[in-house]
Amino acid sequence: MARSDEHALSFGRNVGDYDRGRPSYPSEAVDWILEQAGPTHPSGMRVADLGAGTGKFTARLVSRGMTVVAVEPDPLMRERLAQNLPAVTALEGSGEHLPLDDASVALITVAQAWHWVDVPATSLEVARVLEPGGALALVWNIRDSEVDWVARLGEVMGASEAEKYDSQTPPVGAPLERQAYREFRWVAEMSREQFLAMVTSRSYVITMADAERDEMLARLGKLLDEHPDLAGRTSYPMPYVTRVTIARVAA
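^ that's the sequence the OP posted. Answer follows.
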């Protein structure tokens, strides 16, 4: 993956928090992606999940009966994925160097990872690996900052690479073109432990100096304990907007 390698490959240093704190994805979004990929495909459609991490999105594909190959550059993340989903083939690779044959998959999914790739190089690789008529699905979970306490949380946490990125009209390179876009609103219930892990699994938090991280976590604890919508709670309803873009090789 490209952009900042220090951040892009930092997640394995805190793989436990990533696995514990990162949310899954709504069923409606997964169903829509599979419909867009081709309603005539059988349930065993071959899919590559690029930047698969610990398998958060991979698991959603497996649960739909897809034949999934996971591609992940970080060895610690890949190891956890193999533990979580032992039936899935997990390969070392990146968007710029997909370890897959030409025209070998009907769908490539990239959940929470396209902002790390070199877009022109990865677009060429995606086009090479997709079957004729195959689809690329770019997926992001973005916190819904229209909710007051979520906006306050953003002030405490700062913005991640994903939140800074254009996840509504994400760039793709030739020969790909964007063809469809949808948003899905949903809520992930999180324990306090999961909530804190969601924060500490961010690449820019992992790479913070200890004192800076401790100060930010203290402010986070104060928000959870004192905001009127959160005080006294033992679980927290995190509202998300899942943004999905479908791209294909231009006709």
